[in-house]
Predict the 3D structure of the following.
Amino acid sequence: MSQPGKRYRVNLFRPKKGHMRDEVLIILAILFGWGVCTFGFQVLVYLSRGTGAGSILTRLTLFNLPLHFWFTGQLLPLWFIVLCVAFNLYIDRITEYHSRRRDRSYE
Amino acid sequence: MNDSSWSIFVVLCVFLCFILVGLRQKSRESLEYGFGGRYTGRIGGGAAIASNWMSAASLMGLAGIIYLRGYQGLAYVIGWTGGYVLLLVLLATQIRRFGKFTAPEFVGERYGSPVARLVAAVISIAISVIYCVAQFKGIGMIFSFMFDIDYEQGVMFGALAVVSYIVLSGMLGVPRNQQLQYLVISVSFIIPLMWLARKLGYFWLLPQFGYGRAITDLSRQFSIDFALPFANGTLFEWCALCFTLMVGTAGLPHVLSRFYTVPNLRDARWSVVWGLFFIALIYWSAPAFAVFGRLLEARHGALLPEAAARGMADIIVLKTAVLAGVPGWLIGVLAAGALSAAFFTVAGLLMTGAASISHDIYYSIVNPTASESARMQVAKGGTLVLAVVVMLLALDPPGLIAEITAVAFALAGNTIFPLFLLGIWWGRANRYGAIAGMLTGILCTFAHPLFGGALPRVAALFPVTSSALCGAPLVVCVMIAVSLLTPAPPAEMGRFLEEEVHGHLD
């Protein structure tokens, strides 16, 4: 905990060893999945307008919906739920791991 | 009974039900029955998060904006669900470990500055007022629809009804049963949708998927390409709006405080997942109302010109039901769901806004020796004053429900979100950075109306509903720069952040 000399100062990009580092890793991974699917997909739809790939995205249907509309309107909210579940499962695991390492009862 | 008397009757029944169930729950709780008590598990916690979230914006505004702008409107669906991911991974557990439940309290404690706390309180109240204006517009439109009166009269009667509801439930001491609220709101939204899909001949068991065929029919029979991407706006506008709503969700004061009603951290995290699922159920359904609305208009040969469509977009959910010949009682159910969502949101926001006036401004700054009863009086007076302010603003609403709500999100995303983010994740952030950041955030939010005329580039970069894509990163940079140029925060705060907020398992 408190060490002599320079103290650790909280920083998202320089996490402490142990629980915080594991936590920051999963946070950055989830944020990557969140950003790429949300904004990356829109950029893809925008850039591929008028091309063959673009017509696949907008003409192909899934559940009777055009693929891009289905992806944005229905899959993305589901994807967010999946991301949250993945985050919680991982955090549950690392919390248990670090609690056991500390020999402290789980929260 | 004609259609509108049916809807008034159903709405009254639903509200009576809420009060009766609340009173029953109260008497049970006082007998220590346990059932219906405060803690209802992860699923119950999720339903509470969802019912707290549902408002006129979700039940009326969302379908309205999608009806009007097609694919561009989906940015609202994504923004209002994706924000929960940010909230869960970046803030939820850390803020809970920090132990401060409202934005002004957190700011006051973390940055150790009464000025920063005052600015945060004013911002929170402003967010509540803007958010409530959108709700009042929804309430006014439903009232004018049900009683067949002018919109202005609808807003005034609606305001009277909301204040009477707050006073009545306050006098009776009715606790809010949020699980029941969520059930009523979701059922009253989805059952009429199923009826609508069935009547129009689409797959009605899951109308969330069934409306796909209606999009195809719109394009084949009437040459309306409802799903065409970026037809009503640019990629930048879509992304800016979506990002703004996401960071706004993560910074909205009444959303953040939901994490403290679940007793342990693990359940709090999991209840967010359930909450997001319950919210998504409604958001998967809202586009269906928009598509069916367009289709019915096209079939009746009554496609409205842009201005007229904009005027009635916010009530498209009810208009679609009327156009399809949905029975009066079912329209009443639909109206009751939307109205109760708006009512509970307004009641919650007005009361927390008033509590903030009483606690963060009056008690903390104006009169620290004020007695409990004096603070209570200020809170009660504050509720009324806020209600009147909101009503006056709502008489001439500046935009659609979803758009007005988006401004509240932009303000939250430009001010509260960066404050929480750096407050939790960067130990060096100090009070000067916080104050500079909040002021920059306010400027960014209102840059479009303030400087848009003189500086068109600013207007393009900070659209009024979507200013946080450029605003939030700018505020973060300002906070970092000012914090680095000024003295570091006290060592005790650094230690607290390291040991309690981020070091609980070291």
Notes: Chain B touches chain A through 60 residues (CB under 8 Å). The CA atoms of residues 244 and 410 of chain B lie 6 Å apart. Residues 328-366 of chain B form the longest helix (39 residues).
